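Blinded run. Sample ID left blank on purpose so nobody reads anything into the name before looking at the predicted structure. Input follows.
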Amino acid sequence: MAEKGSMTELTWTVRRLTASDTDLAQIAEQINNAEMEIGDPFTAESLQQFLANDDAIYLTIHHDDRLVGALHGFAYLHPSGKRYVYVDEVDTAEDFRRRGVAKTLMAAALDIARDLGAESLWLGTDDFRDPAKKLYESLSPSAIEPGSIYSWDFD
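Blinded prediction complete.
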């Protein structure tokens, strides 16, 4: 999926990655070198492994040839038979924040969820991430649910 978007003088391309993309090593390098909150480094193999699952969603957004944002998540079928899309992470390069990058990524993810026939798309964010909360609220969510996130790490 490739889309063109613009805001003021900015133009970017949104792309949905697939396991058969031949430039995953280059994309992994761009992700690792971007000034985003990625966490553990990516490799072409780790991206390909993630994307081998047909329910995986990985979007990139480029301004000219520079990666300025990424979103990943997945679609899943609930035991009730309903399909949902979960967005795990939305990242924007520091110097592109509050310029429409994350909003464009979320719009693309919402379109994918609709195309998949999902009942809904959901994501969470930390309470202290006011800019992210403001962005998500601007997208007119059906609900804003309170909650906590619990995690267990394994060595």
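Unblinding after everyone has recorded impressions. The chain has one domain: 2-138.
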